[in-house]
Design goal:
about 290 residues, alpha+beta, nine-stranded mixed beta sheet, seven-stranded antiparallel beta sheet, 8 helices, about 30% helix, binds 4'-deoxy-4'-aminopyridoxal-5'-phosphate
Length: about 290
């Protein structure tokens, strides 16, 4: 349980970590956030997450009252104060207090808070046996409507897709883009393996540039001597693939057993997925690098 919250420059107890009902983050989801993992007390890819947080605020015209170095320090202090060895950190920067209208005018004092807590996203059995997922009937908001590189506090599009999945008995859903190509899942990026080839939707499919996705492409796949093809992916490509897996800070790497009624491969995580999971465990969880 997280007891100490970093709020606007101070560490406060959870019960004192309160923000105004006039905060635009509360009224409109007008803010940005990151999800970051801590393994063995080390913060994984902290710099990349801080860079993405500041990119999100920049694209949202929010001017954080702290610089990157200060936020980095604040994240470290929050992790240490909560004695968090393995867990999850959530820095949030909202536009701050304003009036009831949409206009950002007059919001000159963004709210910044950081939560450090435990996380377990999916049941352990899914990591061993694979997770069934579904396809959402709800397309992902298109990139020309909302830049997917803004990790905005407004996740309603994804939340409604997740809700639809839960009602159908699934824990995660694939979201297509407005052109009908595979984009990503509600909170994870997606990869497929077909005939030994590793593919993932390209950034121009309208997806978040996931930090775990990038780690797979730039680092883990090199170790496994694989090239990743970033391309347009159709649902049929997923149905006809031998392996599908999802990646995300919270999810880490998780194999997909089926997509609705389409069994993927043997119906269990395939050998490449297993190799990625093993390598991830070895390189990240056990020998946690920071950047
Ligand atoms: N796509 C979406 C929509 C997400 O919210 C996330 C993060 N939860 C991801 C992909 C994965 O990104 P990352 O690896 O940076 O956590």
């Amino acid at each position: 349980m997280s007891n100490k919250i970093w709020l606007n420059g101070n560490l406060v107890n959870k019960s004192e970590a309160v923000i105004s009902v006039f905060d635009k983050g509360v009224l409109y989801g007008d803010g940005c956030f990151e999800g970051i993992r801590v393994y063995s007390g080390r913060i994984f890819k902290l710099k990349s997450h801080i860079d993405r947080l500041f990119q999100s605020t920049k694209f949202s015209y929010i001017d954080p009252p702290f610089n990157k170095k200060q936020i980095e320090e604040a994240i470290r202090i929050t992790v240490q104060s909560n004695d968090l060895l393995d867990g999850y950190v959530r820095p949030v920067i909202t536009r701050g207090q304003g009036n009831l209208g949409l206009s950002p005018k007059g919001c000159n004092d963004p709210t910044v808070f950081i939560i450090a807590d435990k996380i377990s996203l999916y049941p352990e059995e899914f990591y061993v046996s694979g997770m069934p997922i579904t396809v959402s009937s709800r397309p992902r908001i298109s990139a020309n409507a909302l830049d997917p590189q803004i990790k905005s506090c407004n996740y309603l599009n994804n939340i409604l897709a997740k809700q639809e999945a839960l009602v159908k008995g699934f824990s995660e859903a694939i979201m297509l883009n407005a052109d009908g190509f595979v984009a990503e899942c509600t909170g994870d990026n997606i990869f497929l393996v077909k005939d030994g080839l590793l593919c993932t939707p390209s950034l121009d499919s309208g997806i978040l540039n996931g930090i775990t996705r990038k780690f797979i492409i730039d680092e883990l796949s090199q170790e496994l001597e694989l090239r990743v093809h970033e391309c347009k992916v159709k649902l049929e490509d997923l149905y006809n693939s031998q392996e599908v897996f999802l990646t995300g800070t919270a999810a880490e790497i998780i194999g997909v057993s089926r997509i609705d009624d389409h069994i993927i491969g043997s119906g269990f995580p395939g050998s490449l997925t297993d190799n990625f999971i093993k390598l991830f465990k070895d390189k990240v969880m056990l020998n946690a690098p920071e950047n």
